[in-house]
Amino acid sequence: MKAIILSILIFIGIESEAQEQFTCLEWNTGVAYIDDIDGYFPGGSYLIGTTYITKSNLVLDAQIGLAFPTLVTGKVGVGVKGENAIITAGIRPYPSHAYLQLQWLPENKNHSFIFSFEESAYSMTGNDDWYGPSAFSIRFATVGYRWNLGSKFGRK
Q1: Closest among 49, 103, 52 to 74, alpha carbons compared
Q2: Which of 39, 50, 63, 110 has the greatest CB tally within 10 Å of its CB?
């Protein structure tokens, strides 16, 4: 996992200096399929993070924060920015999941809407060692809202 994160950071560093860089707060709510209860369980998170967008529209997105029911969470991903959307793929170290995320960017606004789908390391590998780190979930889907607190480059 350290190698993946290091590779992402080196790639972004080589790519170019960020065209946009902003700090954000993000609120998410969703539902996870939990293997032990053979059903769904609600959850949520409140995160703070940073987004870097290069001149060629490559994106590095990282957040850390509080979550229910796991208490803490974080995620790091890379993606591409289109005209009004960002598509990101990444990892969530805890609970250990891989994710695909769509971020819709309303024009000339300082907020966005987030939709994500995540699959656990446990379900992808079938290895019982990942069961606890995946917080006993198989997969989950979330919707969220992100506020941009400030941009180094004046994004509105």
Answers
A1: 49
A2: 63
CA 53 to chain centre: 15
**Residue 106 near residue 86 (C-beta atoms within 8 A):** no
- 3-state DSSP assignment of residue 14: helix
Average pLDDT for runs of 10 along the chain of length 156: 60 60 93 92 96 92 95 96 94 95 89 96 93 92 92 49
Helices (H), 32-155: 121-125
**Beta pairing class for 71-81 and 111-120:** unpaired
Pairing of strands 39-54, 97-104: unpaired
**What tokens does 111 get?**
């907020």
> Which residues is 98 bridged to in the sheet?
91, 119
Q: How far apart are CA 70 and CA 86, in angstroms?
A: 27
